[in-house]
Amino acid sequence: MSPTSEVTIRLATPADMEDILHGFRTYYTAHEPLSGAHKIKKMTPVEEEYYMLVARKSLSLVATNPDQGGKLVGFLTCHIYTPRFDQEVADLLAKYPPDERFITIESIFQKMDRETNLLEVYKVDKVFALFSLGVDPSMRGKSIGFRLVEKALSMAQSLGCKIASVDCTSYYSAQIAQRLGMKCIHEIAYADFVDENGEQIFKPLPIHTHLKRFVKVF
Predict the structure, then answer these.
(1) To which protein family does this belong (predicted)?
(2) CA–CA distance from 4 to each of 23, 25, 171, 194, 208 (Å)?
(3) CA 16, 19, 25 angle in degrees (round to 5)?
(4) Hey, what domains does the chain have and what are their CATH numbers?
(5) Which pLDDT band, with edges at 50, 70 and 90, does 5 fall under?
């Protein structure tokens, strides 16, 4: 029996939201390269609400392990991006004072958005966006992340989306995207992403060198 045969991949339900939030607060925050490289280590309230805004879109996936009583051991938050989402985010941010950690992390994704503009390039009105991937450290190396991304791509196609995208901040997530036939259309080197003084903003572990945007066309 394969090591992942016991793990169930399914759509997240409202009952999973607290477990997903716990995953964000613990293993995702510590191990995602941009989050882990920021000087402020704890996820902030605006950041939590932003991530959970996507998690609650009814398109996210979870991995649960029956051998651990159905414990959630991984998640992939997803949503169908349209320009309306930008207004949802703006409305959320208006509720909070400026947040240094959130603004800094989002700045590199905003640069990626400006330099790719998927809606315009692919002449579509929506994109199936794979948003945040987290796997419990005790369950890594068992292809859970691969299975979550694979399921999400299948779901995107079944929903009639013409393209799916994912921004990979780590070497490992980029490897998953490549293995599943996604194409890297743009990348930003962390060494080149600097502040007004020319200092590198993000300095994750050396294996993580770029933010890469991958796309799958159906």
Answers:
(1) Belongs to the acetyltransferase family. AANAT subfamily.
(2) 19, 24, 22, 40, 26
(3) 140
(4) 8-217 (3.40.630.30)
(5) low
Q: Match 């779901």 to its residue by tokens.
A: 155
β-bridge mates for residue 71, sequence order: 65
Q: What is the mean pLDDT of residues 110-126?
A: 97
Q: Using the predicted structure, report yes or no on whether residue 84 has a pLDDT greater than 60.
A: yes
Tokens representing 167 are 């921004």
- CA neighbor of 215 nearest in space, from 187, 175, 177, 161: 177
What the block records as the tokens of 55 is: 């998690």
Whole-angstrom Cα distance, residue 122 to residue 129?
14
Which pLDDT tens digit goes with each residue over 139-190?
988 999 999 999 999 999 999 999 999 999 999 999 999 999 999 999 999 9
3-state DSSP of the chain: CCCCCCCEEEECCHHHHHHHHHHHHHHHHHHCHHHHHCCCCCCCHHHHHHHHHHHCCCCCEEEEEHHHCCEEEEEEEEEEECHHHHHHHHHHHCCCCCCHHHHHHHHHHHHHHHHHCHHHHCCCCCEEEEEEEEECHHHCCCCHHHHHHHHHHHHHHHCCCCEEEEEECCHHHHHHHHHCCCEEEEEEEHHHCECCCCCECCCCCCCCCEEEEEEEEC
Q: Which two tokens stand for residue 163?
A: 């393209």
**pTM, two decimal places:** 0.93
